[in-house]
Structure formats: structure tokens, C-alpha cells
Design brief:
The structure holds three protein chains of three kinds.
Chain A lengths: L19 H10 L7 H12 L4 H11 L3 H10 L11 E6 L2 H5 L2 H17 L3 E6 L11 E3 L2 E3 L7 H10 L12
Helix pairs in contact in A: 1-3, 2-3, 3-4
Chain B lengths: L2 E6 L2 E6 L4 H7 L23 E4 L6 E2 L10 E3 L3 H17 L14 H9 L22 E3 L9 H10 L4 E4 L6 E4 L16 H5 L5 E3 L13 H11 L11
Parallel strand pairs in B: 1-5
Antiparallel strand pairs in B: 1-2, 3-4, 3-5, 6-9, 7-8
Chain C lengths: L6 E6 L2 H5 L2 H14 L7 E6 L10 E6 L2 E6 L6 H7 L43 E2 L4 H4 L17 H6 L4 H9 L2 H11 L11 H9 L7 E6 L8 H8 L1 H15 L3 E6 L4 H16 L2 H7 L6 E6 L9 H8 L23 E5 H5 L1 H7 L1 H6 L2 H6 L17 E8 L5 E6 L4 H8 L11 E4 L5 E4 L9 H6 L8 E5 L5 H15 L5 H18 L5 H17 L3 H5 L2 H16 L9
Parallel strand pairs in C: 1-2, 6-7, 6-9, 7-8, 10-14
Antiparallel strand pairs in C: 1-3, 3-4, 4-5, 10-11, 12-13, 12-14
Helix pairs in contact in C: 2-3, 6-10, 7-8, 7-10, 9-10, 9-11, 20-21, 20-24, 21-22, 22-24
The chains are: A alpha+beta, B alpha+beta, C alpha/beta.
The complex binds flavin mononucleotide (FMN), iron/sulfur cluster (SF4) (3 copies) and FE2/S2 (inorganic) cluster (3 copies).
Amino acid sequence: MASIGTPTQRGCSGAVAGDREAITRLIQLQGDDPAALIEVLHQLQQIEGYLAARSLHQVARQLRLPLSRVYGVASFYHLFRRTPPPVHCCAVCLGTACFVNGALELLAVLELRLAQQARAGGWVLERMGCLGACGSGPVLRLDQGLAIRVRLAPAPKLDAQLEAIGLPPLGRATAR
Amino acid sequence: MGVITLSVNGAAVAVPSGATLLAACRSAGIALPTLCYLEGLSPVGACRLCLVELEGAGRPLAACVSEAAEGMVLRTDTPQLVNFRRMGVELFFAEGNHVCAICVANGCCELQDVAVAVGMDHSRFPYRYPQRSVDASHPLFSLDPNRCILCTRCVRACDELEGAHVWDVAERGSHCRIVAGLDQPWAEVEACTSCGQCVDACPTGALFRKDDTNVTSHPQRQRAALLQEARQRHSWRNQGPPPP
Amino acid sequence: MSKPAPARLRCCDASACRNAGGLALRQALLAARAAAGLQPTSLAIGAVGCLRLCGRGPLVAADGPGGSRLWGGLSPEQAALLVAAAWVDADPPLALASPQASPPASPPTPVPPASAPLASSSDPLASYRLDLSHPFFSLQQPVVLEHCGLIDPDCLDQALAHGAYSQLRRCVRQLTPEAVRQEVRRSGLRGRGGAGYPTGLKWDTVALQPPGPRLVVANGDEGDPGAFMDRTVLESDPHRLLEGLAIAAWAVGAERGYVYVRAEYPLAIARLRRALDQISQRGGFGVAFTGTPWPLRLELRVGAGAYVCGEETALLQSIEGGRGTPRPRPPYPAQRGLGGAPTLINNVETLAAIPPILRQGGDWYAAIGAGNQASADKPASGATTATLGSRGTKVFSLSGAVVHTGVVEVPLGMPLRTVVETMGGGVVGGAPVKAVQTGGPSGGCIPAALLDTALDYEAMASLGSMLGSGGMVVLGPHTAMPELARYFMGFCVEESCGKCLPCRAGTVQLAALLDRFVAGQAEAADLDRLEALCAMVKATSLCGLGQSAPNPVLATLRHFRPEYLAACREEPRWA
Ligand SMILES: Cc1cc2nc3c(=O)[nH]c(=O)nc-3n(C[C@H](O)[C@H](O)[C@H](O)COP(=O)(O)O)c2cc1C
Ligand code: SF4
Ligand code: SF4
Ligand code: SF4
Ligand code: FES
Ligand code: FES
Ligand code: FES
């Protein structure tokens, strides 16, 4: 779908193998400027799906920054990933409007539901800030799509709704 | 350079313009507890223990990062400040794993000294018992993050004095921790010159020399100031006894 | 191209409506127009910015000889009906709160009670019609948002046709920087980013620093949960922000600047990028809009998910590519900022108010809301105070348990009740409002009994809340206050940068204490601990995040203390 979401979501679709020269070029495009570190990390994550230690090392060398400084920045910001992205991710909006409409309870339900899948390396549950769909909360982001008005309902009804929006059915431990 | 006069706990003090409130308090002979401040390193104002109350200001100021101004009226010992400082020290103890009895720094730890100074013997806040593992990879030194209070003195010492910038802070909030290189074992970071400045700067037993025992540790915490003076002013204060 | 078409459909293309399927609806409308054999010249269909009632998206407005009409929640299948309806002259409008059929794919929303009968049951789209004369729309006074919802945010020509950059041209060609600053001082404009610092004064501080380079920064980090005012401006009228920032640069003598936007706003980022590209294609601000070689260069910087980067010193760190950790002030960024140079930092909404202030004059802006303030002087349980310092309009984002979710721009000094009940329609399902949360994690709660409080800086502060950046979350009877306080504390724990002890370790302990209240397992002594630790964290933290982290606890304690007491166990377990 269109560009609603966060840069990390691109990672949900799977990583591309690292290409050293592509990284060299993208840093050169930023003028080898240390102040562009965050922009470089964004683009790196877009290419590789996450920030691998090997790539961070290259970034530090080319921008002439201390390794620990690059690691400090990469680990400070929530949207940077240092491990390969999961196959599927389901993100729950925990913005205030969604909170008021029951997002925490929904999160608890999803935690239970996705626990098995997470172990199997399929679905990962994430939390996110407001997506701007506050009028239709609670809101979930499933991979690239958006599910709105996922209201807490008695178990069978909610289960059916979650299944309808593409979450794996209860009790099956593998992702599609 | 002009002179500024101000009052600290009722006593008049004169300091050169540009001096910090911490310098003013110390020149008045008043001991303010500090942990993140180390003479010779740039101040960061992170531990919030050196608080003073300035007449007319809305909230307490961190003395190590506030500049003195003419006519200021300061207090360092109000019941509120004493209370805040004590709570701060309790938060430090609850945040890490400080088992003084088995610590190399026992007896020469600034955190311990501050706890004594504010009269804290236990934390009213529940201990959080974080899981942190020791890095003993370096041939000469070790890092025990259980005792780290995130003062960043090691980060600044390595960056500002040695120029190696081996250390930095990673993660954020309560997950913050000190990392070497790309979160590697210390020994693998080739930038480290094994100079030991980070160890000398550490206020607690988090960074220590492997050959230290708890009785004979001698942290050289004044080294940062001496080195900074030597670097910036080409002036050497030689210490130690003359040759025989 | 600027000749008005006889009929026009404006499709909201801001993010809330996009999320609700606005893009597909617009595609369907274009197809339906083609299928009906109509030319773009006879029925224009275009994307516009936010149409305000975001909770009913996707919204489409139709302009015709009979006036404007508005529909919400249409699905692509209804496109042909809408194209046909765009030709019919405006019929008597329906109530805003008329029952809304939901798009087929999603379960129904709780339907607000219909307050007016259906006007024409023969109209198949009647139940999707929204009443533009409803107070939600009619009480708005768009100044910052004057072109939002009217122009295509991606089209520079439309912005120019609505007067964009004409004030920049006038400033650079006819006014001295001092004259511009004087106009801003006269307007009484205060920073809309939360602290409410007088904007003219800040501009003077930067301008009057010793000679040397200066920089300007627009703060679009907008991280308060429940706030989406700045996003609305950025997505709906990006050139408005750029003009405001360029004028600020002229007024303080800067030739470089940054717009910092949080990464969570990809649509706003894309639109700003395009807007900046459009300007450089025309040779830059100087050549394109002022006819002078003025070398102003503005750059976009994107965050990476850190609320604390909205704090101005952390923002500077982040722009320089570092960890977004605040540093002690003074020196303020206005004295020493990026690269040591004096740096002006203003909120997006603050800057977006600048062009109309220069066009209409500072006195005009200062007069807005002045009348309100006299009439709001009626004693509402001693809540109202003089509102000398709150002039002009303010954008609020209304969300939570409220019926009408969206963006409103109203004169300051308007009673909170008017916004929440008259405009917002109160709580979904007709339940009473319990409280209104303002100012996000640094703000507080206004209980229902104090809803007559005027929306101005002083009155809100006197209640232990704050006007804040403008996020307004309405709470219904089911929200438990300790739980709300715990929610915000959890937010601060997540977002603390970790530099200073009271915030890093204190918020964790506060959250643990609040957990006991949420679980109903607290002891009476926990209340004292909670208050003592709140006082410590508030007084001793390094930056505004830690200093205000206890505010939601203190505000809910102040107005809803019985809920905390009820969460205490009667006796300690061992007694
Ligand atoms: C934790 C924290 C977060 C903040 N977030 C924002 C923000 O998202 N947007 C903003 O404009 N100001 C934010 N501010 C306020 C800014 O520090 C600064 O005061 C403001 O941008 C100044 O602009 P103004 O004078 O136009 O309001 C924040 C402050 C703090 C302490
Ligand atoms: S020993 Fe010296 S170079 Fe190595 S980490 Fe410590 S201060 Fe840095
Ligand atoms: S290791 Fe020592 S010097 Fe470094 S931050 Fe921790 S306590 Fe401070
Ligand atoms: S108050 Fe919190 S966010 Fe601000 S500097 Fe301290 S730890 Fe960082
Ligand atoms: S609060 Fe969830 S979308 Fe805004
Ligand atoms: S010594 Fe001043 S804040 Fe740490
Ligand atoms: S986003 Fe469409 S009305 Fe606000």
C-alpha cells in the first residue's frame, strides 16, 4: 500500500544480500559527511533490511567516525534494526487514541496469539506510535497493510476478525 | 579576566568570571557530591547530584554545568536538596548490581563515598537486578557493567584525553550501556591503546585493572586534570618523589 | 489552468483518509468520470489536504454553483453515484452526526445518535453526507490551515495561486529584518511547540547575537501521542511551512536552515521533499520568489524514531547525526546551536502562522481571540484567568473517545467545552466526558467539571495541565486514571534518552509504583512514595522530558485522587 508507515516496515519484506559497493556509493552521495550518519543508516536499512555489524563497520570507516559512535546512534533510534527483519510483522498502534480505545488489551490478546508463531520465526509483534488513523482505532499494521477498527470483542468474534485480516489462525505454529 | 562575587550558604565567595557554580562552592570550602563531573573532562550534567538552589530560579541547577554570575545567592544544603540527592543515590543503587563487599573499588569508590555523604544505607526503591555480563577480554583491564553508573567519564576520557573514542553509550533510557566499538569485546577494538585513562577516570569498580585487588587499587582520578592541563597549556605538574 | 471549473471534487489525500482508502476512492472517481464521458474541464477531480473530520475518512468535498458539500466514508463502488451527485445542486444538508454506513470490509463503528432526520431519502448517498454548517466546521477559524483542504499539496502552482511566497517576496524586497520581527512581536504569537515562548522575542535573540552565520530550524518532530496538527500542515500545505521558515531566515539573517520531520510521517516527508525540489528547480528561494540572489538553502532532515528529539538541544544533536540526547541550557540554541552558530528553532505551526501575520498585520492576529477572552471571563469555578498572553488561533487535534475526530483551528480563549462538546460532539454513545487529556505525556487532565476553562496558556497551566502542542484526547467514563498515568509513564520510560539519572531510573521506578495502583495492590505508603519521587524527577531532570514526565501522574492525582485511594489495599497483607 501507499507510503504510510515507518521506514523499518520495508524490512518486513525480507533482506537483500549486502552489496558493499552500493553502500559506498550511497555514502558518497551524502558527501561522505559525518552529519549525514542518520540518513545513511536509513538508506542502508532500506537496502539491506537491517543494519548488519559488517555494514556499520563500513559506514564508520567511510564517514571516518569511531565505531562506538556509529553503534551508539544505530542503537539509539527505535526505527533502526540490528537484526534481520522477521518474515511477517504485526504492529499495534499504542498512540493515545488507540490506547483509549483498548489497544493495550488488544496487544495482550495478540501476544498470546502470536507467541507460537514468533518462536517458529514467522510473525513478530511490534508496538508503534500513532499512525494517523486515530479516528478508526485500534489500528494494526500487518506487513504493509493496515487494519482499522480492530475492537476488542468476545474471543470467537475477535479471533474470526483477526483471521480475516490475515493473521495466522490460532494453534498453527507455522507462517504461511 | 573579571571577578564575580556571589553568596554560597550565606558566605561571600569571589571567583574568576566564567567559573562554574561547582568551582564557586568548592572555593568556599563546601563539598558538593559529584559523580559525572571529573576535573579535566568536559562536564555533562548527567548525574544530577551537584544540585544547588539559586534564589529566584524555578528549579535546582546542576552546579557543574552552570556558570556563576554576579550577585547570585546559592544554597547547597536545603532539606529539599538533601532529600533529592539521597533519592538520587538510592536510584543509582537500585538500578545496578552494587555488591560492595566483593568489589575491587571497595573503599575507593565515589558512589560509595556519596552514599555515605548523603546518609544512605539502603534503597527505598526495589532493586532491579539487571542481567549484565562482564567483559574480561582485554589483557590488562576488565569492565563489569553491573557497577556502571553511566557517568560517561570513560567515554570522555578515551575521547578527549586519548583521542581513541573506544567507548560510547548504546541503546537508550534504562537500557543504556557502555559499549566498546561495535558492541565488541574490548580486546577486539583495535583503536584501544591500552593507556588506561578510562580506568583511571571510572568512579566505581566498573572499569578496573586486572592486577588490582580490593586492598591495593589505586585509581588515578586526578590524572585527567593533569593531562588536560599539559595538553592545553603545555604546563606539567610533576608528581611523585624526586629520584634518590 | 487557474480558471475555476464549474464543478470540482476535492478528495482528501492526507494520511488519515489515505489509511481509510482515499486513494482507491479517487482512482474510482476518475474512472467514473471517464465512464460518464465527462471532461476534466467540466468536473475537476483533485487531491487536497486534510478536510478536518479525519475520523470519517475518506472525505470528498464537492464545489459547485450551489456551494460546497461534503461526504465521508464512501467506498470506491459508490464513485459513480458521487460523480452524478456532483452535478446536482446542493440540497439541504444533513446533520454531521447522521448514521454512517461503514465500508463493507470493516466492522461498523459505534454510530452516534442521529440528531437530524434524513433530508432526502431518495438520495442514495444521503447517509454519507456531512453537514458543513455543523459547529465542527462553522466554529473553525482557519489561519494556519487556510489553504489546507483547498489546494493540492503536491502542486506549487496551486499554492502560488493562493498567494504562497507573496509575503516572502514582500519581506525580502520591501521590509528590513527588524520590520519583519516587529510585526511578529506585535502579533503576540507564542511558540506552538508546547512551551509558549514569545516568537518575536526569540527571533530578536537570534538576530541580535554578535555578527556571524545563523541558522533556522523547523521542528516537525511532533511526537506527542494524540497530536497530529503539524502533520496536517506538512501533508496539506508544505509550501506554507517553507514560506514561514524562509521569512524567519530573512528576519534573523540566516542563509541556511533545516526542516526536521519524524520518520513516522512518510507522506509529510515525501511532500516536503517534492516541495523543496520544486523550489530548487526554479533556482532556489531567492531567484524563484524574491527576484534577488538571496542564497537561502533549506534541507530536510528525517528522524529515526525518538520522541526526545523534539527537545530542541536533542534536535540539534540529531541534525548533526548524533544520539538525540539533550544538553543543559544555557546556552540556548538561540545563542549557540548548530556548529556553535545562533540557531532559531520554531515549531511547524508557529512558522506556518507567519505568512498570514505579515499579510494581515500583527495587530490583526493579536485581535483574534481577544473578544473571546472578555466573554470567557465569566467565573467558571475560578478557573479562568486573564488571557492577555494568548492571541491568535491554535490548531488542535481531537481524538480518543470523542464522536468527531479530526483537526480544528479555533481562536485561543475558546472554552474547552465548546471544542469538546459542541464541535467534537462529546463522547461516543452519548456517555459523559470524564476528562480531557491535553499536552500529551508532558501535560495533564482537565476533569469534566472544569470544561469551561478557556483554552489559553495561563488558564490551562493554573489547572496543572498545559495547552501543550495541541493534542486533545477525550476520555470517556471507562478510562481509569491510574491506568492512563501508567500509560504515559510507560511512554516516558521508552522514550527517555537515558542521559540523566532521575529520568532514566526514576521513570522506571514510577512506572513500577503505578503498576501497583493499576493492579489494585498498592499500599497507602506507595502514594507518598509516588508523590515524593514525582517531585524529585520533576525538579532534577536535565530536560523537559524528565521534568514533565510526572505531570500526568500529578494531574490525575490532583483531580482524581479517589481512584488512587481506591486502588490501595485496605491493610498491608501481613497485618
Ligand atoms: C521532550 C520534548 C519533546 C518536544 N517535542 C516537540 C515537538 O515534537 N515539536 C515541537 O515543535 N516542539 C517540541 N518540543 C518543544 C521544543 O523543545 C521547542 O521548545 C520548540 O520546538 C520551540 O518552538 P516554538 O517556540 O515555536 O514552540 C519538545 C520539548 C520537549 C522537552
Ligand atoms: S585504555 Fe585508553 S584507549 Fe583503551 S579504552 Fe581506555 S581510554 Fe580508551
Ligand atoms: S564504566 Fe565507569 S566511567 Fe564508564 S560510564 Fe560506567 S561508571 Fe562511568
Ligand atoms: S530528562 Fe530524560 S530525556 Fe531528558 S536528558 Fe534526562 S534522561 Fe534524557
Ligand atoms: S492513536 Fe492509533 S492511529 Fe493515532
Ligand atoms: S556532577 Fe553535576 S550533574 Fe553530575
Ligand atoms: S485526513 Fe482527510 S480529513 Fe483529515
